[in-house]
Write a structure and sequence with these properties.
Helix content is 21%, strand content 24%. The protein is an alpha+beta fold and 152 residues long. The protein has one domain: Inorganic pyrophosphatase (Inorganic Pyrophosphatase, Alpha-Beta Complex). 19% of the residues are buried.
Length: 152
């Protein structure tokens, strides 16, 4: 999303013959450690469309490091999907599905010059919500006017 223009902008192409294992987007009103909005993967079952807003609940977080440093991905399910009511934390996702997501993020940058993935692991729902809170605080600090005196 080009936030200044309010339009969808193609941000990047995958260089490998892989595809995202889930709908991929971001958590609005956040700023991730990589300087972009916090990444989100949404387990929808069916693909949505660019610009679609989906009310979700976080169930875990995939933590990886790339050439720019830490890069967290929040794993979510649609909040009101009756097929997903039993999915509350990362352990509720089958191990094979987690392995598929892990594999994707370990190889998706392999053919891009100067890009790499150096390590990864999964964390649960509580860690995901902690990161969302931190990312919202980072976003709020960035949005504050710089010329206004700050309280001590």
């Amino acid at each position: 999303m080009d936030h200044e223009l309010g339009r969808i902008r193609l941000d990047r192409m995958l260089f490998t013959s892989t595809q995202y294992p889930a709908d991929y987007g971001y958590v609005e009103g956040t700023l991730g450690n990589d300087g972009d909005p916090l990444d989100a993967l949404v387990l929808t079952g069916d693909a949505t469309f660019p610009g679609c807003t989906v009310e979700c609940r976080a169930i875990g977080m995939f933590v990886m490091s790339d050439e720019k440093g830490p890069d967290e991905k929040i794993l979510c399910v649609p909040a009101h999907d009756p097929r997903r009511t039993g999915i509350q934390d990362i352990e509720d996702i089958p191990e094979f599905d987690r392995l598929e997501i892990t594999h994707f993020f370990e190889v998706y940058k392999d053919l891009e010059p100067g890009k790499s993935v150096e390590g990864s692991h999964w964390e649960g729902r509580d860690a995901a919500y902690d990161e969302i809170r931190r990312a919202r605080k980072r976003h709020q600090r960035r949005e504050e006017p710089r010329d206004r005196p700050r309280r001590r």
